[in-house]
Amino acid sequence: MRDQGLWTWHLVAGVVILVLLGLHMTIMHLDEIVRVFSPSPGEPIAWANVMARGKSVFFLMNYVLLLGAALFHGLYGLRNILFELNPASGLKKALNAVFLVGGLALFVFGSWAAWASFTVARGA
Amino acid sequence: MIENKGRPNRLGIVGWLAGGRWGFERYLYTLHRVTGLGLLAYFLMHIFVTASRAFGQEAWATAMGAVTGPLFTVGEFLVFAAFAFHAMNGIRLVLVELGFAIGKPIEPVYPYRTSVHEQRPLAIGVMILAAILAIAGGIGFLE
User: Fold this and answer.
1) Chain B neighbours among A 22-61 (CB < 8 Å)?
2) N or C, which end of chain B is more exposed by having fewer CB within 10 Å?
3) Residue of B nearest to A103 (CA)
Protein backbone atom coordinates (compact mmCIF):
# COMPACT_ATOMS: atom_id res chain seq x y z
CA MET A 1 0.00 0.00 0.00
CA ARG A 2 2.85 2.34 0.88
CA ASP A 3 4.57 1.60 -2.42
CA GLN A 4 1.34 2.28 -4.31
CA GLY A 5 1.15 5.67 -2.62
CA LEU A 6 4.78 6.45 -3.46
CA TRP A 7 4.19 5.37 -7.07
CA THR A 8 1.20 7.71 -7.32
CA TRP A 9 3.36 10.56 -5.99
CA HIS A 10 5.99 9.58 -8.58
CA LEU A 11 3.40 10.14 -11.33
CA VAL A 12 2.14 13.38 -9.76
CA ALA A 13 5.74 14.65 -9.47
CA GLY A 14 6.24 13.76 -13.16
CA VAL A 15 3.30 15.98 -14.14
CA VAL A 16 4.61 18.83 -11.93
CA ILE A 17 8.05 18.48 -13.54
CA LEU A 18 6.50 18.43 -17.02
CA VAL A 19 4.95 21.85 -16.40
CA LEU A 20 7.77 23.53 -14.43
CA LEU A 21 10.73 22.01 -16.30
CA GLY A 22 8.87 22.65 -19.55
CA LEU A 23 8.80 26.35 -18.60
CA HIS A 24 12.49 26.22 -17.56
CA MET A 25 13.52 24.55 -20.83
CA THR A 26 11.46 27.03 -22.86
CA ILE A 27 13.21 29.93 -21.14
CA MET A 28 16.69 28.43 -21.44
CA HIS A 29 16.72 26.57 -24.75
CA LEU A 30 13.84 27.77 -26.90
CA ASP A 31 14.77 31.44 -26.50
CA GLU A 32 15.42 31.75 -30.25
CA ILE A 33 11.75 30.88 -30.86
CA VAL A 34 9.98 31.97 -27.65
CA ARG A 35 11.69 34.80 -25.74
CA VAL A 36 10.11 34.84 -22.27
CA PHE A 37 11.37 35.91 -18.84
CA SER A 38 14.71 37.17 -20.22
CA PRO A 39 14.13 40.94 -20.36
CA SER A 40 17.77 41.94 -21.00
CA PRO A 41 19.57 41.28 -24.29
CA GLY A 42 21.92 38.31 -24.46
CA GLU A 43 21.71 34.78 -23.22
CA PRO A 44 19.04 33.66 -20.72
CA ILE A 45 21.96 32.80 -18.38
CA ALA A 46 23.36 36.38 -18.56
CA TRP A 47 23.59 37.78 -15.01
CA ALA A 48 20.98 40.51 -15.67
CA ASN A 49 18.45 37.92 -16.83
CA VAL A 50 19.29 35.55 -13.96
CA MET A 51 18.68 38.40 -11.50
CA ALA A 52 15.48 39.49 -13.27
CA ARG A 53 14.03 36.01 -12.74
CA GLY A 54 15.74 35.57 -9.35
CA LYS A 55 13.92 38.48 -7.70
CA SER A 56 10.51 37.11 -8.67
CA VAL A 57 8.50 35.29 -5.98
CA PHE A 58 6.97 33.22 -8.79
CA PHE A 59 10.39 31.90 -9.83
CA LEU A 60 11.46 31.35 -6.21
CA MET A 61 8.42 29.10 -5.70
CA ASN A 62 8.94 27.54 -9.13
CA TYR A 63 12.57 26.59 -8.32
CA VAL A 64 11.77 25.12 -4.89
CA LEU A 65 8.76 23.15 -6.15
CA LEU A 66 10.68 21.88 -9.19
CA LEU A 67 13.65 20.95 -6.98
CA GLY A 68 11.46 18.89 -4.64
CA ALA A 69 9.46 17.22 -7.42
CA ALA A 70 12.56 16.39 -9.51
CA LEU A 71 14.51 15.03 -6.52
CA PHE A 72 11.61 12.79 -5.48
CA HIS A 73 10.85 11.63 -9.05
CA GLY A 74 14.51 10.98 -9.90
CA LEU A 75 15.61 9.33 -6.66
CA TYR A 76 12.45 7.20 -6.40
CA GLY A 77 12.98 6.09 -10.01
CA LEU A 78 16.60 5.17 -9.27
CA ARG A 79 15.50 3.33 -6.11
CA ASN A 80 13.02 1.27 -8.15
CA ILE A 81 15.69 0.34 -10.70
CA LEU A 82 18.08 -0.74 -7.93
CA PHE A 83 15.38 -2.66 -6.03
CA GLU A 84 14.55 -4.62 -9.19
CA LEU A 85 18.03 -6.12 -8.95
CA ASN A 86 16.95 -7.90 -5.74
CA PRO A 87 19.37 -6.48 -3.19
CA ALA A 88 19.40 -8.05 0.29
CA SER A 89 16.92 -6.55 2.74
CA GLY A 90 19.72 -4.88 4.73
CA LEU A 91 21.00 -3.20 1.58
CA LYS A 92 17.45 -2.10 0.74
CA LYS A 93 17.16 -0.41 4.13
CA ALA A 94 20.55 1.26 3.65
CA LEU A 95 19.56 2.48 0.15
CA ASN A 96 16.27 3.85 1.50
CA ALA A 97 18.18 5.76 4.19
CA VAL A 98 20.77 7.11 1.71
CA PHE A 99 18.08 8.30 -0.72
CA LEU A 100 15.98 9.85 2.04
CA VAL A 101 18.85 11.67 3.79
CA GLY A 102 20.62 12.57 0.52
CA GLY A 103 17.41 13.81 -1.09
CA LEU A 104 16.49 15.93 1.93
CA ALA A 105 20.02 17.38 2.13
CA LEU A 106 19.96 18.33 -1.56
CA PHE A 107 16.49 19.84 -1.15
CA VAL A 108 17.64 21.97 1.80
CA PHE A 109 20.79 23.08 -0.05
CA GLY A 110 18.96 23.88 -3.30
CA SER A 111 16.18 25.73 -1.47
CA TRP A 112 18.76 27.74 0.46
CA ALA A 113 20.48 28.66 -2.86
CA ALA A 114 17.14 29.76 -4.36
CA TRP A 115 16.34 31.86 -1.26
CA ALA A 116 19.87 33.36 -1.06
CA SER A 117 19.83 34.34 -4.76
CA PHE A 118 16.35 35.81 -4.23
CA THR A 119 17.74 38.09 -1.51
CA VAL A 120 20.80 38.91 -3.67
CA ALA A 121 18.53 39.84 -6.60
CA ARG A 122 16.21 41.90 -4.39
CA GLY A 123 19.20 43.79 -2.98
CA ALA A 124 20.71 44.45 -6.44
CA MET B 1 7.16 -0.55 -6.67
CA ILE B 2 5.54 -3.96 -6.18
CA GLU B 3 7.60 -6.22 -3.95
CA ASN B 4 9.32 -9.20 -5.54
CA LYS B 5 7.62 -12.40 -4.31
CA GLY B 6 10.64 -14.67 -4.49
CA ARG B 7 11.12 -14.63 -8.28
CA PRO B 8 14.64 -13.39 -8.85
CA ASN B 9 15.24 -10.91 -11.65
CA ARG B 10 17.80 -13.20 -13.31
CA LEU B 11 18.61 -11.04 -16.33
CA GLY B 12 19.06 -7.83 -14.32
CA ILE B 13 20.04 -4.81 -16.40
CA VAL B 14 20.86 -7.09 -19.38
CA GLY B 15 17.11 -7.75 -19.63
CA TRP B 16 16.53 -4.10 -20.54
CA LEU B 17 17.75 -4.92 -24.06
CA ALA B 18 18.61 -8.58 -24.42
CA GLY B 19 15.63 -10.41 -22.93
CA GLY B 20 14.12 -11.59 -26.20
CA ARG B 21 12.27 -10.17 -29.20
CA TRP B 22 10.77 -7.01 -27.85
CA GLY B 23 8.27 -4.63 -29.43
CA PHE B 24 8.79 -0.90 -30.05
CA GLU B 25 7.38 0.04 -26.64
CA ARG B 26 9.99 -2.15 -24.87
CA TYR B 27 12.80 -0.11 -26.41
CA LEU B 28 11.00 3.06 -25.33
CA TYR B 29 11.00 1.57 -21.81
CA THR B 30 14.77 1.03 -21.98
CA LEU B 31 15.40 4.48 -23.40
CA HIS B 32 13.11 5.99 -20.76
CA ARG B 33 15.30 4.49 -18.03
CA VAL B 34 18.58 5.46 -19.69
CA THR B 35 17.44 9.06 -20.26
CA GLY B 36 16.04 9.17 -16.71
CA LEU B 37 19.37 8.15 -15.22
CA GLY B 38 21.20 10.65 -17.44
CA LEU B 39 18.83 13.46 -16.48
CA LEU B 40 19.19 12.60 -12.78
CA ALA B 41 23.01 12.70 -13.00
CA TYR B 42 22.86 16.06 -14.80
CA PHE B 43 20.28 17.43 -12.36
CA LEU B 44 22.40 16.61 -9.29
CA MET B 45 25.36 18.50 -10.83
CA HIS B 46 23.04 21.30 -11.97
CA ILE B 47 21.95 21.94 -8.38
CA PHE B 48 25.54 22.70 -7.34
CA VAL B 49 26.51 24.69 -10.47
CA THR B 50 23.45 26.96 -10.37
CA ALA B 51 23.73 27.45 -6.59
CA SER B 52 26.74 29.68 -7.39
CA ARG B 53 24.32 32.53 -8.20
CA ALA B 54 23.71 32.86 -4.47
CA PHE B 55 27.35 34.04 -4.07
CA GLY B 56 27.11 36.93 -6.54
CA GLN B 57 27.97 37.83 -10.12
CA GLU B 58 31.63 36.82 -9.99
CA ALA B 59 30.89 33.33 -8.65
CA TRP B 60 28.18 32.93 -11.30
CA ALA B 61 30.56 33.97 -14.10
CA THR B 62 33.21 31.53 -12.80
CA ALA B 63 30.71 28.66 -12.62
CA MET B 64 29.32 29.38 -16.09
CA GLY B 65 32.87 29.71 -17.44
CA ALA B 66 33.69 26.24 -16.11
CA VAL B 67 30.84 24.67 -18.09
CA THR B 68 31.44 26.39 -21.42
CA GLY B 69 32.90 24.93 -24.61
CA PRO B 70 31.92 22.61 -27.47
CA LEU B 71 31.85 19.50 -25.27
CA PHE B 72 29.41 21.11 -22.82
CA THR B 73 27.29 22.47 -25.71
CA VAL B 74 26.91 18.97 -27.15
CA GLY B 75 26.26 17.60 -23.66
CA GLU B 76 23.63 20.25 -23.01
CA PHE B 77 21.88 19.42 -26.28
CA LEU B 78 21.87 15.73 -25.31
CA VAL B 79 20.28 16.71 -21.98
CA PHE B 80 17.63 18.73 -23.83
CA ALA B 81 16.95 15.84 -26.25
CA ALA B 82 16.77 13.42 -23.29
CA PHE B 83 14.29 15.77 -21.60
CA ALA B 84 12.17 15.95 -24.78
CA PHE B 85 12.08 12.15 -25.06
CA HIS B 86 11.55 11.47 -21.35
CA ALA B 87 8.76 14.08 -21.08
CA MET B 88 6.85 12.94 -24.17
CA ASN B 89 7.23 9.24 -23.35
CA GLY B 90 6.27 10.03 -19.74
CA ILE B 91 2.99 11.55 -20.96
CA ARG B 92 2.33 8.31 -22.90
CA LEU B 93 3.11 6.19 -19.83
CA VAL B 94 0.78 8.20 -17.57
CA LEU B 95 -2.02 8.03 -20.17
CA VAL B 96 -1.60 4.27 -20.54
CA GLU B 97 -1.37 3.80 -16.76
CA LEU B 98 -4.67 5.66 -16.38
CA GLY B 99 -6.30 3.44 -19.02
CA PHE B 100 -6.36 5.84 -21.96
CA ALA B 101 -5.42 4.80 -25.51
CA ILE B 102 -5.36 1.07 -24.76
CA GLY B 103 -8.72 0.22 -26.32
CA LYS B 104 -11.75 -1.48 -24.80
CA PRO B 105 -11.74 -5.09 -23.57
CA ILE B 106 -12.74 -7.52 -26.35
CA GLU B 107 -13.47 -11.23 -26.67
CA PRO B 108 -10.30 -13.29 -27.07
CA VAL B 109 -11.03 -14.48 -30.61
CA TYR B 110 -8.24 -15.86 -32.79
CA PRO B 111 -6.19 -14.18 -34.29
CA TYR B 112 -5.73 -12.44 -30.94
CA ARG B 113 -5.25 -8.72 -30.75
CA THR B 114 -3.35 -7.13 -27.90
CA SER B 115 -3.69 -3.63 -26.50
CA VAL B 116 -0.22 -2.98 -27.93
CA HIS B 117 -1.89 -2.55 -31.33
CA GLU B 118 -4.10 0.13 -29.82
CA GLN B 119 -1.19 1.83 -28.06
CA ARG B 120 1.13 1.99 -31.05
CA PRO B 121 -0.30 5.19 -32.67
CA LEU B 122 0.14 7.02 -29.34
CA ALA B 123 3.74 5.78 -29.05
CA ILE B 124 4.56 6.91 -32.60
CA GLY B 125 2.78 10.24 -32.07
CA VAL B 126 4.68 11.15 -28.89
CA MET B 127 8.00 10.16 -30.53
CA ILE B 128 7.28 12.52 -33.44
CA LEU B 129 6.51 15.28 -30.92
CA ALA B 130 9.75 14.51 -29.04
CA ALA B 131 11.74 14.72 -32.27
CA ILE B 132 10.13 18.08 -33.20
CA LEU B 133 10.89 19.41 -29.70
CA ALA B 134 14.51 18.19 -29.82
CA ILE B 135 15.04 19.80 -33.25
CA ALA B 136 13.44 23.07 -32.10
CA GLY B 137 15.74 23.11 -29.06
CA GLY B 138 18.72 22.21 -31.26
CA ILE B 139 18.32 25.45 -33.24
CA GLY B 140 19.44 27.41 -30.17
CA PHE B 141 22.56 25.27 -29.78
CA LEU B 142 23.63 25.94 -33.38
CA GLU B 143 23.67 29.72 -32.81
Assistant:
1) 22, 25, 29-33, 45, 47, 50, 54
2) C
3) B44
